Amino acid sequence: MKILVATEKPFAKVAVDGIRKEIEGAGYELALLEKYTDKAQLLDAVKDANALIIRSDVIDNEVLDAAKELKIVVRAGAGYDNVDLEAATAHGVCVMNTPGQNSNAVAELAFGMMIMAVRNFYDGKSGTELKGKKLGIHAYGNVGRNVARIAKGIGMEIYAYDAYCPKEVMEGDGIVPVDSAEALYETCNVVSLHIPATAETKNSINYDLVNRMPKNGLLVNTARKEVINEADLLRLMNDRPDLKYVTDIMPVHHAEFAEQFPGRYFSTPKKMGAQTAEANINAGIAAAKQIVGFLKDGCEKFRVNK
Ligand code: 3PG
C-alpha cells in the first residue's frame, strides 16, 4: 500500500518524520510530493497512491480520475472545502478530516494579528489594549473555543454566535451567547471569524453585517477568504475609515485593500494559521493514524462524505 503526502505547503520535517513512523510501522510505503507548483505533478503522483494526506490541496474530479487506486483522502486539518466530496463519493473514496488538531495554532495566530492591529501595526503611535474590550467569536467550534480560552487570559469580555452550538455549551465556558450574527457585530469591538466556507457562509460577511460594528471595529479572519464579500468590505472600509481588517487568507483583491487602506489592513502572504510544528505534528500524525485505522480495520471515524 502506498500512502502519498501531497502538500503544496509542506509540514515541518518533524511532522513528516512522525507520519513516516506511523505509515512504515504499519507496513506501508510513504511517498512525498511537497511544494509542488503544478497540478500535473499532483496528477502524476496520485496515479498509484492508495491513500492521500493533504492540507489545503485541491482534490477535484480530475485528481480523483487520475487516482485509480485511491481508497481514502485525509485532509490534515479542519476545513475540507478543498475536496470535492460528491466526486469522492462517486469514485468510492472515503474523505476524512482531523478536527481540533491544529486549532490552537490558528487561535494563537488570531491573537497575534489582533494585537498587531490594535497596536497600529507597530508604527510607533499609541494603540489600544485588548483587555476589557468585547470580543465576538463568530462560530464556536474547535478554534473558537481556543480563542475564548486565550481571550479569558487577556481579560476580554467574550461573546459568541454559532447557530449550531447549544447556548449551554457557551455558557458553561463562561461565554455570552448571542442570538444572531447581527447582534454579535453590533456588540463587539473585535470580531474573530471561525466559520467554514459553505454554500451558506460564502460572501456572508457583507457590508450590512460589518457596518454594525462600533467605531474602531476590528475584523480578524483566520477562517476562509470565501466567506468575505470583498466588494462590500472594500466599499465599507472606504465609507468607514475607523475600521480595520486583518486576514490570514489573502483576499482576491489584496492589491486594492493594501493600496486603499494602509495602516488598516494586513494579510499574511500565505495562510499561516496552522503552520506550527505542533499543529503539523498533531494533524499529520492523526491523519496517518486514521489512514492505518481505515485500511487495517475499516474505521470510518471522522469520515465527512457519509
Ligand atoms: C484548516 O482548515 O485546518 C486550516 O485552515 C489550516 O489549513 P492548512 O493546512 O492549509 O494550513
From TrEMBL:
Classification via InterPro entries: D-isomer_2_OHA_DH_cat_dom, D-isomer_DH_NAD-bd, NAD(P)-bd_dom_sf
GO terms for MF: NAD binding; phosphoglycerate dehydrogenase activity
Signal sequence, start to end: none
Alphabetical list of Pfam families matching this protein: 2-Hacid_dh, 2-Hacid_dh_C
Residue ranges constituting the D-isomer specific 2-hydroxyacid dehydrogenase catalytic domain according to the UniProt record: 26-305
Enzyme kind, highest EC tier: oxidoreductase
Superkingdom of origin organism: Bacteria
Sorted UniProt keywords: Oxidoreductase
UniProt EC number: 1.1.1.95
Domain D-isomer specific 2-hydroxyacid dehydrogenase NAD-binding span(s) in chain numbering: 123-250
Family: Belongs to the D-isomer specific 2-hydroxyacid dehydrogenase family.
Protein name: Phosphoglycerate dehydrogenase
Source organism: Phocaeicola salanitronis (strain DSM 18170 / JCM 13657 / CCUG 60908 / BL78)
